[in-house]
Amino acid sequence: MFSVYGMQGRLFRGSLEQLRQVGGVGALTRSRALLPTGKQGDDRLAESFGAFVESAANKATGDDGHRSALSAYTDTRDGSTVRHPLTRVSDLMSPRIISLKDSATVLQAWQVLSEQGVGQAPVIDANNHLVGLLTRADLLNPERLPSPDSHALAWRALMLQNVTNIMVTPVPSVAPDSDIRRVAQVLLDTGLPGLPVVDDQGLVAGFISRSDILRAVVTDPPLDLWG
Question: What InterPro entries is this protein classified in (predicted)?
Fold first, then answer.
């Protein structure tokens, strides 16, 4: 089951087929293709921010949050865990919730993404309900960045902008019991790096990314993509 959330709350709830008919969601209009935003993404432009953002070298070296979602995988190697096909979002999603408040500035968002070593984060309102998704690609949009010779005040103005001005909204989300294949289809349709996992109350329960799915494909326990 998929939902779409925006600044006005939940705008849609239904199946993948219904979601693909929702105007605007299938394309998520942007001025350019998404840049890589996963942990394996190059994100070369991030290094140019210098004093304005945390150095890319300070990114977290570990991937504990995502690995914890798949920690059961390693248990299978010693035979302590019964192997079972992985078919649902809850099998793969990262339960570590890294989110941004809708009151955050661009600078604060950069600091969170850098410190946590992630390429995107759901944006939530004061009641912790999903309202959007912010990615590094949104932050690095060339049409939004001041030119290299711009006055420092132009960069300061950018960093003090509210994240709601540049985040993706409305944004699709997925329920924990949804089929992984259908999530993969939405990621292909929208070009997003992942989807927030949201409960029935609209509260973010986790995140499932392209890298979560790819990691599962190459891991020993069975990932049931065809059943």
Answer: CBS_dom, CBS_dom_sf, Diverse_CBS-Domain
What H or E segment, with its residue span, contains residue 69?
A: helix 64-69
Please state, in angstroms and rounded to a whole number, the distance separating the CA atoms of residues 56 and 124. 25
In 3D space, the residue among 135, 117, 130 whose CA is nearest the CA of residue 200 turns out to be 130
Domains of the chain are: 2-217 (3.10.580.10)
DSSP summary character for residue 132? E
Q: Where are the beta strands (DSSP E) in 28-129?
A: 100-101, 120-124
Query: Can you name the residues that pair with 122 across neighbouring β-strands?
Result: 133
- How far apart CA 49 and CA 31 sit, in angstroms, is 21
Instruction: Say what the pTM is.
Output: 0.69
Beta bridge partner(s), residue 173: 3
Mean pLDDT of the residues in the chain:
76
Both tokens of 44, joined, read 């070369």
For the chain, give the longest Cα–Cα distance: 61
Q: What is the pLDDT of residues 17-70, one digit of tens each?
A: 888 887 656 555 443 333 333 333 334 333 334 333 343 334 433 444 444 444
Residue 142: pLDDT above 90?
no
